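Hi V.,

Quick status before I head out on leave. The structure for the redesign project is tokenized and pasted below; the design run finished overnight.
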């Protein structure tokens, strides 16, 4: 039975739980269906909650998508900044980051598409907020990671902007390519074993192109 709004709103613990349930249900639908389109009825069924709660917590479906972006991209920025601050060799930092990026896009294959859609479709003020909160911090982190490696004599002097596109593109393209896997390779889904193999493949390939002679 769907949970009514008042019952959830009256209990602060249930309130937090319901909001997270809706976000996680949206994430699962987009991941499982390889889609960016959500129906409130499907979301309600997957979450086991009244679809009216979307309006209560997020205002509308677009607000839900923004909240999902904040949830998923927020983790990336926090973890990347923490990695940049660590005291370890620059090549080890980038290996860890590339591996973490592969893992992230395996968990949230919709992430880059969601980011681009919301920037494209948002009003300029909101698009600017998204860029300032996520894109610029990530860009600055890449600049520092590459610069530290060049300074230490470990990396070639590559363009950090292009390097960012290389890493993000490698992760996003693979995990959003289920139709290619299905029709070209007779594979219906991406397994954890394939994720692990692709992670090791990507780390080695990208790092070989970055390391100085």
């Amino acid at each position: 039975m769907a949970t009514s709004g008042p019952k959830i709103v009256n209990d602060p613990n249930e309130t937090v739980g319901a909001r997270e349930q809706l976000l996680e249900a949206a994430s699962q639908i987009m991941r499982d269906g390889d889609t960016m389109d959500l129906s409130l009825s499907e979301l309600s069924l997957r979450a086991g909650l009244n679809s009216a709660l979307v309006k209560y917590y997020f205002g509308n479906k677009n607000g839900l998508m923004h909240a999902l972006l904040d949830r998923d991209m927020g983790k990336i920025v926090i973890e990347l900044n923490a990695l940049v601050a660590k005291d370890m060799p620059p090549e080890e930092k980038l290996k860890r980051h590339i591996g973490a990026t592969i893992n992230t896009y395996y968990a949230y294959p919709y992430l880059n598409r969601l980011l681009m859609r919301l920037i494209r479709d948002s009003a300029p003020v909101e698009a600017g907020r998204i860029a300032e909160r996520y894109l610029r911090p990530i860009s600055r982190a890449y600049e520092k990671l590459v610069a530290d490696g060049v300074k230490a004599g470990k990396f070639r002097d590559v363009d950090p902007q292009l390097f960012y596109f290389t890493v993000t593109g490698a992760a996003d393209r693979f995990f959003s390519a289920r139709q290619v896997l299905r029709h070209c390779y007779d594979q219906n889904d991406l397994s954890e074993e394939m994720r692990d193999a692709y992670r090791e493949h990507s780390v080695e390939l990208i790092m070989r192109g970055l390391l100085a002679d």
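Above is the designed sequence. The domain at 1-59 is CATH 1.10.10 (Arc Repressor Mutant, subunit A).

G. will cover questions while I'm gone.

Best,
W.
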